[in-house]
């Protein structure tokens, strides 16, 4: 989701139903499914009729949100681009070159044989290493501090329980599990825990439950 959604006049002048359909298209595009779906399948995902789909497509094309093939315009331009480790590594090496020279520290009778090359190699490994994932163990793991449902889980919730406010439930889910202390706050399968959370939210709001079996996942709550 891009921040201009909240202030873009083209978006905010749309009826709320159309805004929801636009968000659904974004979710589908995140899951790379719009490319392979026919119009009737897209209508099913949006939970609208073929007539409503035709009206929606015509409006979104006219507004410049999509092209005639359901491709989101300016999609790649709005995607987050991670910074490269090359620039940070170069800055680190420049600092090393300008740093004061210090003598080696002896340990017993042996000289410390660590070199700048060794240090640079370790630093490069550290900078280029992938972001750490949540720990996995037989006793489960804590919910990561920056957790949010990925595109697959978001699409699952929208497809099976469209009346549930998945964004609000994600905030409640995160606060609830971050506040859980001890072993009760550890789970072995967080995606399954999220799916069960959405199912229970649907039960509380009286949302249709016929899609509850979709998406699988064992009960984790």
List the helices and strands and how they pair.
Layout (H helix, E strand, L loop, with lengths): L8 H4 L3 H15 L8 H8 L3 H14 L21 H14 L7 E2 L2 E2 L4 H13 L12 E2 L8 H10 L5 H13 L7 E2 L2 H16 L16
Antiparallel strand pairs: 1-2, 3-4
Condensed summary:
With 221 residues, this protein is mostly helical. The chain is 48% helix and 4% strand.
Description of the molecule:
This protein has 221 residues and is mainly alpha-helical. It has nine helices and four strands. It has a two-stranded antiparallel ribbon. A two-stranded antiparallel ribbon has the order 3-4. Helix 2 (16-30) crosses helix 7, helix 5 packs antiparallel against helix 6 (116-128) and helix 8 packs across helix 9. The longest helix has 16 residues, at 190-205. The protein starts with 8 loop residues before the first helix and ends in a 16-residue tail after the last helix. The model is unreliable at 131-135 and 210-221 (pLDDT under 50).
């Amino acid at each position: 989701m891009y921040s201009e959604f909240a202030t873009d006049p083209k978006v905010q002048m749309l009826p709320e139903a159309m805004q929801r359909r636009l968000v659904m298209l974004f979710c589908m595009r995140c899951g790379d499914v719009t490319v392979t779906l026919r119009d009737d399948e897209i209508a099913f995902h949006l939970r609208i009729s073929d007539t409503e789909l035709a009206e929606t497509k015509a409006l979104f094309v006219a507004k410049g949100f999509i092209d005639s093939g359901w491709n989101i315009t300016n999609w790649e331009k709005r995607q987050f681009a991670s910074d490269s480790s090359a620039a940070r590594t170069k800055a680190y090496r420049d600092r090393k070159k300008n740093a004061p020279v210090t003598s080696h520290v002896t340990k017993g009778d042996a000289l410390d044989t660590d070199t700048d090359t060794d240090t640079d190699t370790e630093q490069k490994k550290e900078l280029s290493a992938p972001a750490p994932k949540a720990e996995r163990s037989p006793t489960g793991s804590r919910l990561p501090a920056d957790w949010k449902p990925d595109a697959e889980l978001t699409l699952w919730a929208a497809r099976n329980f469209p009346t549930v406010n998945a964004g609000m439930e994600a905030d409640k889910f995160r606060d609830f599990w971050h506040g859980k202390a001890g072993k009760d706050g550890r789970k072995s399968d967080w995606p399954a825990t999220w799916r069960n959370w959405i199912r229970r939210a649907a039960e509380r709001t009286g949302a249709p439950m016929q899609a509850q079996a979709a998406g699988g996942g064992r009960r984790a709550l």
